[in-house]
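Take a look at the protein record below and flag anything odd:
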Amino acid sequence: MTANQTSQQDSPQNSKVDNGRIQKLDAESLRNWPLPFPSGDGDKEDRGHVLVIGGSREMPGAVILAATSALRAGAGKLTVATGASVAQLVASALPESRVIGLPETEDGGILPGSAHLFDPLIGKVDAVLIGPGMQDEPAICAFVLSLLPKFIDTKIVLDACAMGVVRNMQGDPSHDHASQKNNADVRLANLVLTPHAGEMAHLTGDDKDSIQADPLTVARTTAKKWNAVVALKGPITFIASPTGEAWQHEGGNIGLAISGSGDTLAGIIAGLAARGATLEQATAWGVVLHAQAGEQLAQRVGSLGYLAREIAGEVPGLMDKLGRRAI
């Protein structure tokens, strides 16, 4: 199965959506929802091409964490785009990747007019991750608005400040009318968003306490509103699709609450999507693999003190642990 194909099962039950039901995510449910697996004679193209856009002069490590995680999740080909000021540093840390340097704003963001630099990649990547380690949210959102229409048929994962683009879809008065006219283009994209409660509060304008009081409803409401798969992260992570499907996962440990952990999760999801998983499946698998990686590290290193850079290294073994048929 190639990266442009999808898994034979749209959900663990492969059945009609029940909007009132929530499915539990664990090892057994994932075994019943196997990811696409490349043929034995396939090459890196069969495993998918992932584009990771992120990083900044203050946080170059975030894009390195995310890109490494995408490869650890099984993607076959990697391109990274980051600020020109750190492009060489990122290239040195990621010898497996092609690295593109992008012009930057004074505040460390990416110039909104840079989207045309990605024209040669249109139709050549299977998944795009945007956001890890980026700065200057207004510039990043303008950049994303101009970029999404170019990858309208590509799976997109939005993380960190890149998620702010969905505020345009709500008529946020802090954005100008010209940006809001692009809402239709955003809605057409195949999106995944991965906010925690604080980020969700920023995106919706609601307070954090109300989001934590009913995270499932918030995930479902925003998934439908934004036409996106939403993973609302927390001690219990809730995932919702635009069609009303919902999943929950309880696992991991406090050690995962560390700088860079969210970047690794976003990278895992993007890597799985590049391999050919549906957005719902890539998100569900990504959440579980990320949590189980934390559990394994806690057993070996300790419940506190393991590093985000160590999470991705656990992923290949965890996928094997679930059985070759299931990875």
In short: The chain has a mean pLDDT of 88. Residues 175 and 220 are 25 Å apart (CA to CA).
